[in-house]
Amino acid sequence: MQITYQFRLYPTPEQVEKMNRTLELLRRLYNAAKEQREIAYKQFGQAVFYSMQQSELPVLKTEFPSYKEIHSQVIQDCLRRLDDAFLRFFRREAGYPRFKSRDKYLSFTYPQHGTIKKTFAEEGYIYLSKIGHVKMNAHRNFDRAKVTQINVKRYADKWMTNIQVKVEETETVSRPEKVVGIDLGLSSFATLSNETIINTPRYLRKAEKRLKRYQRRHSRKQKASSNREKSRQKVAKAYQQVARQRRDFLHKQSSLIVRDHDLIAVEQLKIKNMLRNRRLAKSIFDAGWSQFITYLSYKAKRQGKRFVKVPAHGTSQICLCGADVPKTLSVRIHECLTCGIIQDRDLVSAKVILQRAMSLIA
Ligand SMILES: [Zn+2]
Asked: How far is the CA of 342 from the centre of ligand 1 (A)?
């Protein structure tokens, strides 16, 4: 099992420049590699695979020496992302891969954690190959020997790192306190206080979009026309499909959470959240959340585990230390001036929810 720790980075201006340059070079490579696949296919009917593109990297570096400024595994990871995008498309889990604009290519990854000694040699710093020793606020302890992957991500005005650490399955199961808080959100389906993020699967988001499109078209069809009847059936069928896929997803996720924990805490559904949700297919998402809570609740009950609902008031505006940390929706990072923690806002909410639950049952 992999756990991801997210820490804030404090790069120097020079490092920021290097990281931005890395992102831009990778973005261009991604787009070029996508184009290469398309041209090969259209003109010669040939499929280009990851291994072929990867083997061309030395040539790329000779022709475009600026790519020598990037760690080779980071470059490989870029091609692998493209490969994944195509594979998901072929498996019908995602749409056709798109060219990446500047605001869509925001992170780079060191897929294999290199020499540990070097990466965390300096206290308070992380060593990123070709970038340098970057100041890092590691507010939590983690097993440095078990780091498997390091990702660097640019947010509007901050840089964060996601450090993936391998944890034995038995370690998590036998942890003395198997408690978890769950924040249901929009940017991801759910964030758990143990730093797990559950995303809505792509195939489901796709199906939901399709359904919305059908509904929109349907509402424009003339009353009592044969076209309208056909379109009604189409909508109904798409709806059934979405409902089934969503149920499967919710069942799977809720089962896993209940299996791994003795106490599960959620917040009472917030009207506020639902209003935020206007842009999305509202009924679908609302139903998703309350359905999820229902599943969690009865599965916990069946397995003799505790399920706690806490009042939702202010869970996204308060810190674990109790200080108020007001933030608008667009602020994704929780930064507390009182205790100094800096973390993803949904993660902090999940922890606040757990904290409230613990104080409720204490
Ligand atoms: Zn605080």
From this structure: 9
User: Separation of 323 CA from ligand 1 center, angstroms?
Assistant: 5
Return the closest-CA partner of residue 268 out of 303, 294, 246, 247.
294
Structure token pair of residue 25: 């070079």
Among residues 122, 114, 120, which one has the least CA distance to residue 149?
Answer: 114
Give the residue-averaged pLDDT of 89-108.
88
Give the pLDDT score at 280.
46
> Are 154 and 265 found together in one domain?
no
The DSSP call for residue 338 is T
Residue 226 lies in a domain: no
- What residue numbers bound the domain in which 139 lies? 2-167
Q: How many CA atoms lie within 13 A of 284 on its CB side?
A: 25
Number of domains observed in the structure of the chain: 2
For ligand 1, the distance from its centroid to the CA atom of residue 325, given in whole angstroms, is 8
First vs last Cα of the chain: how many Å apart? 30
How far, in Å, from the CA of 298 to the mean position of ligand 1? 34
Give the residue among 279, 295, 202 at the shortest CA–CA distance from 245: 202
Query: Does 287 score more than 80 pLDDT?
Result: no
Q: Within 13 Å and on the Cβ side, how many CA atoms surround 43? A: 7
- Rounded to whole angstroms, the Cα distance separating 287 from 117 reads 48
Residues paired with residue 180 on neighbouring β-strands, in sequence order: 264
**Cα–ligand 1 centroid distance for 109 (angstroms):** 29
Q: 307 CA to middle of ligand 1, Å?
A: 26
The residue count of the chain comes to 362
* pLDDT of res. 286: 53
CATH classification at residue 341: 3.30.420
Residue 309 lies in a domain: yes
Q: pLDDT grade, residue 175 (50/70/90)?
A: very low
180/156 same-domain check: no
Sorted by sequence, the CB contacts under 8 Å of residue 330 that are 6+ apart come out as none
